[in-house]
Amino acid sequence: VGYIDSFAAEVGLHAGSAIWQAVAGMPFVCVACHSILLPSTVGFWHARGMRRYEPSSRDDREAFTSAILLRTQGTVKCELADLCKALPARKLPLLVWIPKGIGELDS
Description:
The chain is an alpha+beta fold. It is built from 4 helices and 4 strands.
């Protein structure tokens, strides 16, 4: 699991593209971030295929587990709660990208 800490970027630097180019090409099962709530920033991550997952939503929990199982061809079962426990605690929305294959890069 890769994690992009949004606190690593300053507003206005537009570092997201460089971070994305580096991280998206790595062989992670998924990449997560807690995005700052600027519409342009959230839009940037959504445009790269990141999806918001709400840990309190049963549908999101099931969708996440199913996507990870599909991505790993059934070899890894990771619950959304497991991911949340492993990440830094943040009050920002959780966005996750689960690539269809290793090395898949969405521009």
